[in-house]
Design goal:
about 290 residues, Pseudouridine synthase, Archaeosine Trna-guanine Transglycosylase, Chain: A, domain 4, ten-stranded mixed β-sheet, four-stranded mixed β-sheet, 18 strands
């Protein structure tokens, strides 16, 4: 690769099926020529779609991006439960579902909308006493995780169709970070008494970063480029352009006597991204400084 790229920035990857998020990170490390690459939230190997990666200084943005909402398109198969709540797990129960009333199916999915208490799938990356839940499952342990509050902002049932004795349901949704779409499939299947699991999952957006701006790894190998860190910050957060005096205060992490509505990206007069600030009392204080 001969192209030169900004030293720090984001890469929005359209992940292919069969790859882990770590596989994608390893490939981007080679393309970017740096070890300092991280991602803003994992995608299961089965899943495809938007995976946001940070390179060099932009890795410090990732923790803030992980808190944003996400969009998905998925296919839920009703009539079969699996150990992983998706197609990669072993079947644990099969109940004919093709005869389910479509109105009842749609109503069961509608119950998943709003602020809900969701039990994460047992093969999640959540740590239990210092060990990932999925590793405990692989080691033969019976893992039951505690319910956590999540928000499904909207969920649309796009299609309902019989497939043999099963019923496949295509859905699109927008949800808070930490929501497990596999758990929605599991819970809807349980609600209808037939079991359910995911057969397809595609992440369509992470905050402002959507599929329209994502590139496959093959495309990146042909022409690698980063979204400059300043552009990434402006896309993800409200922005405030500062004068030279305030910019100097930011460079040393001082509080600013300016009004902000929330976490805000602040910039020097020449457009350089300086920091994330948030309101605290009567002043704005640094969340993270990037200079």
């Amino acid at each position: 690769m001969t192209s030169t790229a900004p030293a720090s920035g984001l890469v929005v990857v359209d992940k292919a099926a069969g790859m882990t998020s770590h596989d994608v990170v390893a490939r981007v490390r080679r393309l970017a020529g740096t070890r300092k690459v991280g991602h803003a939230g994992t995608l299961d190997p089965m899943a495809t779609g938007v995976l946001v990666l940070g390179v060099n200084r932009a890795t410090r943005l990732l923790g803030h991006l992980m808190l944003t909402e996400k969009g998905y398109a998925a296919t839920v198969r009703l009539g079969e439960a699996t150990t992983t709540d998706d197609a990669e797990g072993e079947t644990t129960a099969v109940v004919p579902a093709a005869g389910l009333d479509e109105a009842a199916v749609r109503a069961a999915f509608a119950e998943q909308v709003g602020a809900i208490e969701q039990v994460p799938t047992a093969v999640s990356a959540i740590k239990v006493d210092g060990k990932r839940a999925y590793q405990r499952v692989r080691d033969g342990e019976d893992v039951v995780l505690k319910a956590r509050p999540v928000t499904v902002h909207e969920l649309t049932v796009d299609d309902v169709r019989p497939v043999g004795d099963h019923l496949d349901v295509d859905i699109t949704l927008r949800c808070s970070s930490g929501t497990y779409v596999r758990a929605i499939a599991r819970d809807v299947g349980a609600r209808l008494g037939v079991g359910g699991h995911l057969t397809a999952l595609r992440r369509t957006a992470v905050g402002p970063y959507a599929l329209a701006g994502a590139r496959s790894l093959d495309e990146l190998a042909e022409s690698f480029a980063l979204m400059p860190i300043a552009d990434a910050a402006r896309a993800a957060f409200p922005a405030r352009d500062l004068d030279a005096s305030l910019a100097d205060d930011v460079r040393v992490g001082r509080a600013l006597e300016i009004g902000l509505d929330g976490v805000t990206a602040v910039f020097a007069p020449d457009g350089e991204f300086l920091a994330l600030y948030e309101p605290r009392g009567d002043v704005a204080r640094a969340v993270a400084v990037f200079v």
